[in-house]
Amino acid sequence: MAQEIGYPKFLRDTAVKQIDKDTWEAELTDDWNIGGVANGGYSMATAARALSEYLTHKDPLSITGHYLSRVEPGKATLEIEELNIGRSISTALLKFIQNGEEKIRFTSCFTDFSKSKGDNLREVEAPKFAPIEDCIDMPYIEGFTPVLEKQIERKFTPNSNWWDQERPRDRACLDAYYSWPGGEDVDLFSIIFFLDTMSPPVFNRLGSRGWVPSIELTVHLKQLPSPGPLKMRGKTDFITSGFLEEDDEIWDSEGNLIGLARQMAKLRFPKN
Predict the structure, then answer these.
(1) In terms of CATH, what superfamily is 7-114+129-266?
(2) Every domain of the chain and the residues it spans
(3) What pLDDT digit, counting tens, does each position of 233-256 carry?
(4) Within 10 Å of residue 205's Cβ, how many Cβ atoms?
(5) Cα separation of 21 and 24, whole Å?
(6) pLDDT of amino acid 271
(7) For site-directed labelling of 127, which of 100, 156, 164, 230 has its Cα 20 to 30 A away?
(8) What are the Cα distances from residue 254, in Å, to 166, 183, 189, 224, 226?
(9) What is the pLDDT of residues 127-136, one digit of tens each?
C-alpha cells in the first residue's frame, strides 16, 4: 500500500476531537517536524480546526501564536476561551497544552468569507515568477532537509536555490510555487500551514547555517484560493541582535492575495 502523503495526511494529522464544551484533543505526528519539533504552522492549523468547530464563524481571518516552549509529536490538549461573538467576527483564545504545560498561546478572529461584503483596494500586484517549468526542487538530504518537505510540492525560482553553497548570495528573499502533491484544492487551514513552511529567507543571503525558531507568528487570511499552484514569497529585511522578522505572502493562480504572515524569530547558530 502506498504511503499516505500530502493533503489526505494533513487532514488526518490536524484532526481534533471534542472532549467537553471548551476542550479539544489532537494527536500530532512527526511527519510535520523541523528537527524534532512540530512545525509552528502545523500546530497553528491544528488549533484553527478546533477553533473553527467551536466558534459561530468557521473561516480563520487572523491568528497569532506565541510559542512558549517546544511542541513535540504526541497528544495535545486544546483549551478554548470565547472572547466575543459578533455579527461578522468571532474572537477566541486557545491554549495548546502538552503534558500539563502550555506550549503555545493563540488568539484568533474567525469570520464567514461567503458573507463578507465591503470595499476592495489593491495597490500591489502579484509578484512575477519564472514559469513553473523553469523552477527547481530543493534536494532532499537525509538529516538536513525537514521531514515535512515530503508532504508538500514546491518549486523554487532559479534565484531562490539557497542550498547551493557555490552561488552568489542575493538578498534575503525566496520565491516558490506551492501545491499539494496530489493536486487537491487548497483550503484555508492549508494556507495557515504553508505560510510557516518557507525556508528561512535569510539563508538566501547568509547561507544555510543555524536554525530559525519562531517566537511569534501572525497569519492573516483573505479568501479561498482559485485552483492551481500558489505563489509564495518570503523575505527578511532586518536582523537585530539575532532577532529577525520574516514576511510571507501567498497569491493564487488568478493573482489574488490569499494570505499574509509575519513572524518574529531568532537566528541561532550551532554550538561549537
Answers:
(1) Acyl-CoA thioesterase, double hotdog domain (2.40.160.210)
(2) 7-114+129-266
(3) 999 999 999 999 999 999 999 999
(4) 17
(5) 8
(6) 65
(7) 164
(8) 35, 17, 20, 12, 7
(9) 999 999 999 9
